[in-house]
Amino acid sequence: MSLNRFFSVFLPQEEKFFPEYKQMSSRIVAAADLFTELVSTTSHDRQIELYTKIKAIETECDNIIITIFDQLNDAFVSPFDREDMHQLCDDLDDVMDYINASAKRLILYQPKQMPNTAMHMAEIILEGAKAIEVACGELKTINKKPAIALEQCAKLHDLEHEGDDVYDNFVKELFESEQDTKELIKIKEIMHNMEEATDCANHVGKTLKTIIVKYA
Is 58 domain-assigned? Predict the structure, then answer.
């Protein structure tokens, strides 16, 4: 048994961390939702407007992470191992960063036309974000009833595999059909960042499962 878990048996559980994780996960859902609209719209002005909102959410998430780290520094005992809490912050931050990076590249590169698979990938990202939100909402009681969080972790694993398949098929079709080298590079990089977002979402699930193994 870790020292942190030993003390957590006897000391009141810190309540302040859970709202921050829940808030960050809900902001990631908001960003993913905006990103699906960004991918589907053809208006450059609207795309810029949506990206500006996504970037603002990324800044919000950065501030939430700072708050969590400050709370960890001040807390005598944390609800979970500090390294796991840091890792969960890093994983959530990576998901948000790749959503933002995908949106930013779409704005900067302005491909002539995004493939239909881009919308499919955006929907996978959004579903992953929603699964993360549900799982993070279970953190407070995850040691007593981990079933819901584990279900969402399994969903994140499946979504990551679905994202891999979508991306692999997309790359194959892209190199077979796209004759414009510049367009090929633009679209491939945007889609690669989207695929990375699904990978990072799965990393969130893996970290949550680590916490469950230690505390459930």
Answer: yes
